[in-house]
Amino acid sequence: AEGLNVRWCQLRLSAQPAIGQGLSRARLGQVPLRLRLRRGGEVCRLPGHSHHQTLKKLLQGHAIAPWLRTRLPLLYAGEELAAVADLWVCEPYAAHADEPGVRLVVQKI
Q1: Highest mean pLDDT among 5-9, 11-15, 76-80
Q2: Is the dihedral of CA 108, 62, 53, 51 positive or negative?
Q3: In this structure, what is the dihedral angle of CA atoms 69, 9, 88, 56, given to the nearest 10 degrees?
Q4: How many angstroms separate the CA atoms of 87 and 83, rounded?
Q5: How confident is the model at residue 13 (pLDDT cuts 50, 70, 90)?
Q6: Which of 11, 23, 77, 103 is the most buried (most CB within 10 A)?
């Protein structure tokens, strides 16, 4: 994912190297990566939480505007949701303390 620079629905998605934050480089390197838009029914378990939450509830709970929800790039590792734009990283793809990671950055273009 490092070196990523993608235009997506009037947004630019890029990746920056990080340590102890973002996506784990080691775990991302094991599966093919894809970007997708929301289809409904997506779930994510945030680091430090024991239960999965629906993406719908996460977006509503953080007051993400409805028009933006449909445009957010979702990063999939294989068939698993790994990250929601630059908002959240899902377990097991989150980088742990002192682990090389990749932080996603989304900018409006």
Answers
A1: 76-80
A2: positive
A3: 20
A4: 8
A5: confident
A6: 23
